[in-house]
Amino acid sequence: MAFCKLLLTVLVLLHNSGGLLGNEVRSSIIGAEDAKKESWPWMVHLNMTSKDSKLEKWGCGGTVVAKQWVLTSAQCVANYDHLRSFVVVGAYQLQKAAHRYMGIANIVQYQHLGNSNKNDIALIKLKKPITFSKDVAPVALPDKDDTFGPSSECWITGWGEVGNGVPLKAPETLQQLKISIISQSTCKERLPQIASNTLCTNDSKGRGACKGDYGGPLVCRKGGKLVQVGVMSSGGCGPKDGPGVCTEVAKYLTFINDYIHRPGKAPAEM
Ligand SMILES: *[C@@H]1O[C@H](CO)[C@@H](O)[C@H](O)[C@H]1NC(C)=O
Ligand SMILES: *[C@@H]1O[C@H](CO)[C@@H](O)[C@H](O)[C@H]1NC(C)=O
């Protein structure tokens, strides 16, 4: 998750000089910060390896949506090797072993076309059901008519890069960032080709998702709880990268519910 180092330095200086800025202002600019433990129990890490001879490796985010299902982006699971790739649940610091590794049985993709934001959503079926606990629990999904916009309170979480090409430092503590949605018309001015069924996040401070965060959630407050409004798909990685783009979960509820609530429809294991 990226944040703008220049702004950070300037603000820390202002703050240290006993300026007018209170804690609240300071923390809202710093951007990504260490998550509170057990605040995001649906958060999973995908540790992926390609199925070709290059054995390329990449990380992604994802969310627990049911006992045996994880939601992520289609790009995260393209060309993956199901034996060498795995899902980590209950992780907080990736380099500490207090979490569980789950094998991948199969992947269901919505008709995702190539390297685009269009229908960038997929479900991972785990080999075994997850045992839920205080640090592993499913995320709530929105209702199909729910709308979220610039005034919603939203967050993204991930273990991705903290700047373009800069990995998260050991012990790789989950990062959280409060972020706002921008209107689709504002987003279109910046990204004219943006696919439908997407939501964009405000990048005005150079903050947002980076490599390794994609596939993870954008959650927003709905009444007293958080629901997963988006799956991070691209963008957001620093001042030059443009708005973050998420796949809008409310538009894919039929796809998701079809699989997670109807065992008969699940694909055979590989
Ligand atoms: C995936 O797991 C391997 C083995 O535990 C580790 O060396 C590697 O850094 C992980 N990769 C990612 C992207 O998390
Ligand atoms: C994005 O955030 C900046 C800084 O908080 C704010 O000034 C701007 O109005 C926001 N843009 C939109 C489109 O919400």
Automatic annotation (TrEMBL):
Molecular-function annotations in GO: serine-type endopeptidase activity
Pfam families reported for this sequence: Trypsin
Presence of keyword Ion transport: no
Domain Peptidase S1 positions: 29-261
Secretion signal, residue range per the UniProt entry: 1-22
Keywords associated with the record: Disulfide bond, Glycoprotein, Hydrolase, Protease, Serine protease, Signal
Classification via InterPro entries: Peptidase_S1_PA, Peptidase_S1_PA_chymotrypsin, Peptidase_S1A, Trypsin_dom
Alphabetical list of SMART domains matching this protein: Tryp_SPc
Keyword Chaperone appears in the UniProt entry: no
Entry's Gene Ontology BP terms: proteolysis
Protein name from the UniProt record: Peptidase S1 domain-containing protein
